[in-house]
Amino acid sequence: NDIRRVWRWLVARGHVAPTVLEGLKALEPLERGRRGAAEGPGVQPVEEAWVSAVAAAAPPTLAAMIALHWATGMRPGELVRIRPEEIDREGEVWRYEPGRHKNDWRGRTRVIFFGPKAQEAIRPFLDRDPWCPCFSPREAAEQRGVKPGRSGDEYSVMSYARAIERIAKAIDVPHWSPNQIRHTVGTAARERAGLDVAQVVLGHATVDATQVYAEANEPKAIEYAKRYG
């Protein structure tokens, strides 16, 4: 699936012919455990010290993104696309409802709860056009004192990951990925509050992902955000 996404991106920009993508679509997915196919290690948790070190060396925009990610465990795609208009700031715990998310096609509403730590991280980035991205790579480049170049005004999941990788390498911290934050936060939520809360925090909607989605668990997730988010 990841390979096909890359090829779709290349086709959309005219770098390769559409017939190449059609050929990829015809391929059968490789079954797990099939002989001759090496299994990857999967997403591993990340040491909090490594995350803190990168955040401390990052420009304010990237540091805020990492802090918000660590406080919520949201998907990287939900983080990079966040806009002020999508955040309901009423009440002690804020609600972020992404305009686009993994389970849109199922008709479910994805809600991410912002406790005190998450609110502190994103608050400085809410004073802009309601439908503009909160986090801009152009701003981050200016904060670093470098020319923005082709950074643009909105992070992609890939550019967010590359920014983390660049800083980790510069300060000699083991490389880690944004999805490792999500994995770590989800594991902690499960250990602290159980599967039902972890499932709401992560936005999983299948039994295989964590457990069956249930809106009845939202109050527990809100209480969890007050304490840990």
Please provide a written account of the structure.
α10 (195-202) packs across α11. The chain has helices at 2-12, 18-25, 48-57, 60-72, 76-80, 116-122, 137-144, 157-170, 178-193, 195-202, 218-228, and strands spanning 87-88, 94-96, 112-114. 48% of the residues lie in helices and 3% in strands. The longest helix is centred in the last third of the chain and has 16 residues, at 178-193. β1 and β2 form a beta hairpin. A 3-stranded antiparallel beta sheet has the order 1-2-3. It has 229 residues and is mainly alpha-helical. Mean pLDDT is 80; it is low at 206-214. It has 11 helices and 3 strands, in the order αααααβββαααααα. The radius of gyration is 19 Å and the shape is globular.
Concise synopsis of the structure shown:
The chain is mainly α. It has eleven helices and three strands.
Termini Cα gap: 32 Å
Helix/strand class: mainly alpha
Question: Could you give the count of β-strands?
Answer: 3
Query: Main sheet?
Result: 3 strands, antiparallel
State the helical fraction.
Answer: 40-55%
The pLDDT mean sits at: 80
Which features would summarize this protein structure in a list?
229 residues; three-stranded antiparallel beta sheet; 3% strand; globular
Topology:
Blueprint: H1 2-12, H2 18-25, H3 48-57, H4 60-72, H5 76-80, E1 87-88, E2 94-96, E3 112-114, H6 116-122, H7 137-144, H8 157-170, H9 178-193, H10 195-202, H11 218-228
Antiparallel strand pairs: 1-2, 2-3
